[in-house]
Amino acid sequence: MFYEADEISEIFKGVLPVYLLFILPIILVISPCGAAHEFPVYRMHQFELHGVARGCKSAAVNLEVRSISSWRTQRHCVISRIGNLTSLSLHKLAENTGALLIVLPKNLATASSKEREVLSDIEVHGLTTEIDVPIYFALWTPDIEKILGDIDTGSSPEKGSSAWNAMIRSFSSNGYQIVVNTNKPYPRSDAVITSIQGKLPGLGVEEKLPTIVIVTHYDANGVAPDLSYGADSNGSGVIALLEIIRIFSHLYSSKRSHAPVNLVFLLASGGKYNFQGSKKWLEDQLDVTDATLLQDVHFVLCLDSIGQDNLYMHVSKPPKEGSSLHEFQKIITATRKSGVDIVHKKINLADEILAWEHERYSIRRLPSATLSSLKNHKDPMRGTILDVSESVNPATLARNIEDIATTLARYIYNVSGSSQALSSHMTVDEEVVKTWLDFLCSHPRAAPLLTDKNNPLVKSLIDTMSRFLVDVKTSALVADKRDPDFVFYDSSQAVCHIYNVKPALFDLFLTVQITAYLAVVHQIILRMPLIYDMMVPSVKKVKSQ
After folding, report:
1. Same domain flag for 167 and 241
2. Residue 402 located in a structural domain
3. Nearest-angstrom CA–CA distance, 121 and 103
4. How far apart are CA 102 and CA 67, in angstroms?
5. Does residue 371 share a domain with residue 222?
6. CA 35 to chain centre
7. Exposed, middle or buried by CB within 10 Å (0-12, 13-18, 19+), for 278?
8. How many domains are contained in the chain?
9. pLDDT at 16
10. In terms of Cα–Cα distance, which of 111, 130, 41, 131 is closest to 79?
């Protein structure tokens, strides 16, 4: 008995290496590859404003990846370059697909005109309506380019190819499964909007002096919060306010140039959410019995997107002859070589969303205006992820800040024409502007990302204002729980995993192959006595030799 078992083992010693050399490699070669690609993705903004839901309300994804030309059902996630989309295809995808991953250029500053146009359509659609399916954005990488190439090749059969070739291509092509494991988005009940105020008291009895208020909001906006850097809108306004603070703090530190005018500065948050920071600050200043800060206001000047060549002065009603705003407009027009045109737009009280920040102050009967390089409040550059640091020329911004500061100084000191004494203080260093611009654009500044009390950007702004101003304080706004004006959601960023998978046809083929293999093994086992009788004589012959 043991002798026969030994003979059988001799048989398999010769057969088993053949199996290892041929059968196993074949199975390993044709088996699906388990490689995975991992990269960060940014979810489309989700928020509520005055009870209206906007943006993308879903987050988790576990679907098969398809190209924009080959997807069919809601079981597919479409991945596409931004340039391959149109407004029509976007609306169709948002309504019928399972998810959408949009690939942005690696450097948003180099986006083509078509990519900018499509992205503008996406931002308008995403920031004004509610979308059911998850929509994510990713910056271009070589791995993403390979995935795009694979799915484009797999979905585009060659012209003139036969049905057999098409089946072989379908069988051999690589497929992909996308997985984004993230929690269901929940509203943030702890979100706090923080505005920062400070002042330079005028010479004399502070309560009896007139006041000029300079306001700008420091948050940015875009279709994806974690990609919203807002270099011009409104990083330029923040830099201008900080430089004006620096200039006038030097002027007010000397008795010879200490003017009898109070200067109040406000860095407001929530500017992209209907100017909630300014609204709360006004309520704090005006709706109390002992309010004295805004008793005698010459005007409120808001700064919004001033990083381009032109400047416009937006008002709710044309300033009257001889009024403070009329005088300011005359001076700034004379100061700037290109002048400043007035753009008049009435406030539509039936519309909950205001156009410009000065309208918050005009509603409270304070003379106010907004300086901006943008002529229309609907300009897409006011809320886009394309507003990166490269979109602002530091030299142009520095020149605009000098013009605004010079105009304020001429108005405050009642100086007409050029003054050497003032001009020496009005210089704005282009390198300082660039440094501030780089710093502000190193942090995404969407309001939902700035709600932490210990946010480093907010703390830096508070510290900077405290260096030059007195009575620096913050004004915190938490949305009402019963009837909130705004609601922010979490899960704005996630990690995307894309796995290589074989198509269903490959699974069918592999199933057939495994079944056939097992059937052959089963038949061999059943016929082992016959095989033994056939192979033992040959083994004995070999051993005898």
Report:
1. no
2. yes
3. 15
4. 11
5. yes
6. 29
7. buried
8. 3
9. 47
10. 41
Query: Residues 239, 242, 246, 248: what is their CA dihedral angle, to the nearest 10 degrees?
Result: 110
Please tell me the distance from the alpha carbon of residue 498 to that of residue 288, in angstroms, as a whole number: 57
207/265 same-domain check: yes
Q: What are 538's two structure tokens?
A: 């040959």
pLDDT tens, position by position, 480-531: 888 899 999 998 999 999 998 866 666 677 777 778 877 887 777 777 777 6
pTM above 0.90, yes or no: no
Q: Tokens for 245, please give them.
A: 């603070």
Token pair 């830096």: residue: 460
Candidates 198, 200, 199, 194; CA nearest to 218 is: 194
CB 197 within 8 A of CB 266: yes
Q: Which of 407, 411, 406 has the alpha carbon at shortest distance from 428?
A: 406
The angle at the Cα of 71, spanning 68 to 76, to the nearest 5 degrees, equals 110
Q: Output the CA angle 46-475-307, nearest 5 degrees.
A: 65
Pair 86, 122 in one domain: yes
Output the CA torsion 349→350→351→352 (10° steps).
Answer: 80
Residues 203 and 197: their CA atoms lie apart, in Å, by 20
Q: Answer yes or no: are the C-beta atoms of 136 and 469 closer than 8 Å.
A: no
Closest Cα to residue 383, out of 13, 41, 22, 49? 49
What helix, strand, coil percent values describe the chain, rounded to 5? Answer: 45, 20, 35
225 and 300 housed in the same domain: yes
Structural contact between residues 494 and 39, judged by C-beta atoms closer than 8 angstroms: no
Higher pLDDT, 395 or 502: 395
Residue labelled with tokens 């016959």: 530
Q: Is 486 part of a structural domain of the chain?
A: no
> Would you say residue 483 lies in a domain?
no
Domain that holds residue 257: 192-478
SS3 of 113, please?
helix
Kindly report the CATH number assigned to the domain that includes residue 333: 3.40.630.10
pLDDT in tens, 81-119: 998 988 777 888 888 899 999 999 999 999 999 999 999
The backbone torsions φ and ψ at residue 296, rounded to the nearest 5 degrees and listed phi first, read -130, 90
Task: Kindly write down the DSSP assignment for every residue of 425-472, as one continuous string.
Answer: T----HHHHHHHHHHHTTS--BGGGS-STT-HHHHHHHHHHHHH-EEE
Contact 162, 438 (CB under 8 A): no
Do residues 83 and 201 share a domain? no
Q: Which residue has the higher pLDDT, 275 or 164?
A: 275
Q: Would you state the structure tokens that stand for residue 172, as one six-digit string?
A: 């051999």
**Are 412 and 535 in a shared domain?**
no
Q: What percent of the chain has pLDDT over 70?
A: 84
Closest among 260, 33, 246, 223 to 136, alpha carbons compared: 223
Strands 52-56 and 130-131: parallel
Token duo for residue 456: 């480093």
- Per-residue confidence band for 153, with pLDDT thresholds at 50, 70 and 90: confident
Do residue 246 and residue 116 come from a single domain?
no
Domain-located, residue 285: yes
> Which residue is it, tokens 């399972």?
98
Q: Cis ω on the peptide bond leading into residue 234 (within 30° of 0)?
A: yes
